[in-house]
Write a structure and sequence with these properties.
Keywords: NADP, Oxidoreductase
GO molecular function: oxidoreductase activity, acting on the CH-OH group of donors, NAD or NADP as acceptor
Shape: globular
Family: Belongs to the aldo/keto reductase family.
CATH class: Alpha Beta
CATH architecture: Alpha-Beta Barrel
Structural class: alpha/beta
InterPro entries: AKR, Aldo/ket_reductase_CS, NAD(P)_OxRdtase_dom_sf, NADP_OxRdtase_dom
CATH superfamily: NADP-dependent oxidoreductase domain
Strand content: 15-25%
Largest sheet: 8 strands, parallel, barrel
Helix content: 25-40%
Strand order of the largest sheet: 3-4-5-6-7-8-9-10
Oligomer: single chain
Protein name: Aldo/keto reductase
Distance between the termini: 28 Å
Number of strands: 10
């Protein structure tokens, strides 16, 4: 439990838990069940997004989990994200944010991230996020999926330095240049897809280390990222895996083994700007919120 309550101090002084549960590609009932299970099992960080289409379920899971664990809202850390299609002027961003608060059933957000740097809108959108932060509705603001070029442009225009840049990060995609740049500006890198799917989990090097330490491949990867001083957002809808993913605090990888995993970097991203129509009209992904058959905004879960 103690490890799950370990935090990083962000550049504005807010303390963010280092290991949290994510709910990407999860329907509302799955989000509710997994979030409640995570909180029951001592997780205190939950990560969602409007694009995931499950903020309603996530909010229901938070409420359920807090009741089951005997905790209060201020005992946990909730992250959500500004949807690509909601980027634009202050009114548009503020209306979207208020709708997200309503869906989650919360009156403030701990960390609000810009999900992607949508061309022609991300600076204006970030200014709107700064105003929400100043109004006290958000404890910290940041970004997600920002390369160094876009981050430089944002820093030139921003009043508030982003607290976090959430990036795809795992053994085969380590974002070395972005990590170095962000660290030099006091921006904490948080890892989405920290397990890297089959390419990382089934890598022979990872499997060999799992045998050596008598741990799962996922535990080896998460421990490696822990020793790299990252924040990790790991997804599972299975309570046994949620528990297993948190069992990384009773061992430590040797420096040699950390370096061995460092050498697995292939620089291969699973998703990037060219996949989105806001960057390339011929790309496959349009602005769309994931829709689940179990979503009914008029009824509580």
């Amino acid at each position: 439990m103690d490890g799950l309550h370990t935090t990083m101090t962000l550049n504005n002084g807010v303390k963010m838990p280092r290991l949290g549960l994510g709910v990407w590609k999860t329907d509302n009932h799955g989000a509710q069940e997994s979030v409640a299970a995570a909180i029951r099992n001592h997780y205190i960080a939950i990560d969602t997004a409007r694009q995931y289409g499950n903020e309603q379920g996530t909010g229901a899971g938070i409420k359920q989990g807090l009741q089951q664990a005997g905790l209060k809202r201020e005992d946990i850390f909730v992250t959500t994200k500004l949807y690509n299609g909601d980027q634009g002027n202050a009114d548009k961003v503020t209306n979207a944010f208020n709708g997200q608060l309503q869906a989650l059933g919360l009156d403030y957000i701990d960390l609000y991230l810009m999900h992607w740097p949508v061309d022609a809108h991300f600076i204006e959108s970030y200014h709107a996020m700064e105003q929400l932060y100043k109004a006290g509705k958000i404890r910290a603001i940041g970004v997600s999926n920002f390369d160094n070029d876009r981050m430089e442009k944002l820093l030139e225009a921003a009043e508030i330095v982003p607290a976090v840049n959430q990036m795809e990060f795992n053994p085969t995609n380590q974002e070395r240049d972005i990590l170095t740049f962000d660290q030099s500006h006091g921006i904490q890198l948080a890892a989405w897809s920290p397990l890297g799917g089959g390419r990382s989990l089934k890598n022979p090097v990872i499997e060999k280390l799992a045998d050596k330490y008598h741990k799962t491949a996922a535990q080896i990867i998460l421990r490696w990222e822990w020793q790299r001083d990252l924040i990790m957002v790991v997804k599972s809808v299975h309570e046994d895996r949620i528990i297993s993913n948190s069992q990384i605090f009773d061992f430590e990888l040797s420096d040699e083994d950390v370096q061995t995993i460092n050498q697995l970097d292939e620089g291969k991203r699973g998703l990037w700007y060219s996949d989105f129509q806001w960057h390339d009209p011929n790309a496959k992904i349009a602005n769309a919120i994931d829709h689940w058959d179990d979503t009914d905004p008029s009824k509580p879960l």
